């Protein structure tokens, strides 16, 4: 079926950047209680000139193929990227990364990783 | 389509005839038939229910208990006939049936008007771990307010409630025991009458409330045989419209309790400083009710009565038995709840290896196989069992073996796709 194209399944079976970082500078976790997904993001930031960029990132947790593939793709996409750029990311960024049609009930699964990442950076 | 006879008693209406009563089952999506396995969430509606609701709009639109004109008299008569039909289905008197929005509202209504004046901070209320949130959260939240202890009756390894545990759970200070007559996750069907009897032997003054949202639609229920004080259920889970449910309570209890909401209909006389409340059950039905909903609810109750609730139960037992055996053949599938179909309702919650239930449901949707995934409004139970969300297939009068076979075929696809 369209939603589970091969790349999504590959990221689900072998997620990139899966794990945790001890004593990460930024960390956050969120659950999607309706389906039981839970994602944690650990991020280390380094200063390069004026910019603060993502030096390393790991995610952990449990979730459906869409939420795990989303986290895997997102963590790949933000390494070396500027903090303020990540903070400004909108849902469309995730939809483009996944490149798969999502039904309304799966949007929450897809966006959980971005929500957690932005929460970890905000330090709240 | 294979026809399965409802094999005991009258009226022996076969499954094929029953399916014909449900116009939605003739719908196709992407050229494929609909395999509806989510009746525990809400049921499909037969033509007589659709006609009853439509007929109120087409022929009898008027408020109830107010007009002197013909249409209002007709609407009032239909409304009260529905109360009788619902009462008849559960062996109750019509005056003991209070119409509400749903089971949640019925249970909340009871909690709001009964707890104050009956339960204080030194007391105990007992519920079970397998409750739907609607029979858990009200008691948990009022415990914070009033200060009583909420004790929990845990299920055993088979997903059953061991009556022996009542000896320690119920004390002289236990004012209320509230439990489900059929779990919406495990499918467990406790022996309500036996539990009520045992609880009253320990504490004769105890009040007993039963969440029958998954029982009244699926099996014979006689409130006089159960012997509980309060029973709650919903219309939409038993072939009726959404937005209407019922609270049954003994006449004496209803008479003793104060009204819940104040307003129209629930009064007899209003003066500047005093109000005389109406008789039961109207005392608890403030404002213009969901008239068309109640009329549809009555039609649903009549439809089920005509099928015969023992036949409904037998049919579901046979379907669930078949589904359990077929699901059991798929390696990696874990099924929760009693293994014995005799004490299990038409619901099967399961997990499939490491595949997330959301992914299962998504793949099944490709084949129009409609199942529910998540916690099914029973998070404490999932936490207690130490499992994540589950997938759930549930059955009703219109479910047949083809539905089960379609489920199994789709699950094989899931297995192939995710390598579970």
What is the element layout, followed by pairings?
The complex is a heterodimer of chains A (124) and B (420).
Chain A: H1 6-13, E1 26-32, E2 37-48, E3 51-62, H2 65-78, H3 83-87, H4 91-98, H5 107-122
Antiparallel strand pairs in A: 1-2, 2-3
Helix pairs in contact in A: 1-2, 2-5
Chain B: H1 15-20, E1 28-29, E2 32-33, E3 35-36, H2 47-59, H3 70-89, E4 97-100, H4 103-114, E5 124-128, H5 137-146, E6 149-153, H6 166-169, E7 174-180, H7 192-202, E8 207-211, H8 223-226, E9 230-234, E10 245-249, H9 251-256, E11 267-270, E12 275-277, H10 291-307, H11 309-328, E13 333-336, E14 347-352, H12 357-365, E15 369-370, E16 372-374, H13 379-385, E17 390-394, H14 401-418
Q: Separation of termini of chain B?
A: 31 Å
Name the CATH superfamily classification of the largest domain in chain B: Type I PLP-dependent aspartate aminotransferase-like (Major domain)
The greatest interface between two protein chains, and residues involved on each side, is: A-B, 19 and 18 residues
CATH-defined topology of the largest domain in chain B:
Aspartate Aminotransferase, domain 2
Overall pLDDT metric of chain B:
95
What's the gyration radius of chain A in Å? 14 Å
Structural class of chain A: alpha+beta
The main pleated sheet of chain A reads as: 3 strands, antiparallel
Query: Regarding quaternary structure, how should these chains be classified?
Result: heterodimer
Number of helices of chain A: 5
| Biggest beta sheet attributes of chain B | 7 strands, mixed
CATH class of chain A: Alpha Beta
Structural domain tally of chain B? 2
Strand content of chain A: 25-35%
Q: Please state the CA-atom Rg of chain B, rounded to the nearest Å.
A: 22 Å
Strand order of the largest sheet of chain A: 1-2-3
CATH architecture of chain A: Alpha-Beta Complex
């Amino acid at each position: 079926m369209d939603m589970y194209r091969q790349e999504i399944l590959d990221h689900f079976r072998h997620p990139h950047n899966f794990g945790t970082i001890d004593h990460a500078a930024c960390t956050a976790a969120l659950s999607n209680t309706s389906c039981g997904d839970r994602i944690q993001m650990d991020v280390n930031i380094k200063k390069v000139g004026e910019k603060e960029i993502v030096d390393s990132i790991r995610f952990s947790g449990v979730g459906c193929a869409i939420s795990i593939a989303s986290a895997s793709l997102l963590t790949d996409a933000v390494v070396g990227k500027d903090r303020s750029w990540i903070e400004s990311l909108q849902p469309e960024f995730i939809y483009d990364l996944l490149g798969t049609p999502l039904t309304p009930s799966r949007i929450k699964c897809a966006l959980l990783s971005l929500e957690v990442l932005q929460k970890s950076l905000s330090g709240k | 389509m294979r026809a399965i006879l409802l094999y005991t008693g009258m009226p022996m209406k076969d499954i094929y005839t029953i399916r014909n009563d449900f116009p939605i089952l003739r719908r196709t999506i992407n050229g494929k038939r609909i395999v509806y396995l989510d009746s525990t969430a809400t049921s499909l509606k037969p033509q007589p229910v659709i006609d009853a609701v439509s007929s109120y709009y087409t022929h009898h639109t008027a408020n109830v208990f107010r007009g002197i004109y013909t249409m209002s008299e007709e609407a009032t008569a239909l409304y009260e006939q529905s109360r009788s039909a619902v009462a008849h289905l559960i062996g109750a008197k019509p005056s003991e049936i209070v119409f509400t929005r749903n089971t949640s509202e019925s249970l909340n209504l009871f909690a709001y008007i009964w707890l104050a004046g009956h339960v204080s901070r030194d007391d105990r209320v007992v519920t079970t771990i397998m409750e739907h949130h609607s029979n858990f959260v009200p008691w948990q939240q009022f415990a914070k307010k009033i200060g009583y202890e909420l004790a929990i009756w845990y299920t055993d390894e088979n997903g059953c409630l061991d009556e022996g545990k009542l000896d320690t759970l119920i004390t002289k200070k236990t004012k209320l025991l509230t439990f489900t007559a059929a779990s919406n996750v495990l499918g467990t069907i406790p022996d309500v009458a036996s539990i009520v009897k045992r609880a009253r032997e320990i504490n004769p003054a105890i009040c007993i409330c039963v969440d029958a949202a998954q029982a009244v639609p699926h099996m014979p229920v006689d409130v006089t045989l159960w012997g509980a004080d309060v029973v709650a259920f919903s219309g939409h889970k038993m072939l009726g419209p959404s937005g209407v449910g019922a609270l049954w309570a003994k006449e004496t209890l209803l008479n003793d309790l104060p009204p819940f909401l104040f307003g129209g209909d629930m009064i007899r006389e209003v003066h500047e400083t005093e109000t005389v409340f109406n008789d039961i059950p109207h005392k608890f039905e403030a404002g213009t009710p969901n008239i068309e909903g109640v009329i549809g609810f009555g039609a649903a109750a009549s439809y089920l009565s005509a099928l015969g609730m023992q036949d409904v139960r037998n049919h579901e037992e046979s379907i669930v038995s078949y589904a359990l055996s077929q699901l059991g053949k798929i390696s990696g599938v874990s099924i929760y709840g009693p293994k014995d179909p005799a004490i299990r309702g038409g619901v099967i919650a399961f997990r499939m290896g490491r595949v997330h239930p959301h992914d299962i449901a998504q793949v099944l949707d490709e084949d129009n196989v409609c199942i529910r995934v998540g916690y099914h409004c029973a998070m404490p139970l999932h936490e207690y069992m130490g499992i994540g969300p589950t997938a759930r297939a549930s059955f009703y009068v219109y479910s047949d073996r083809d539905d089960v076979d379609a489920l199994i075929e789709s699950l094989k696809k899931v297995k192939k796709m995710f390598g579970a």
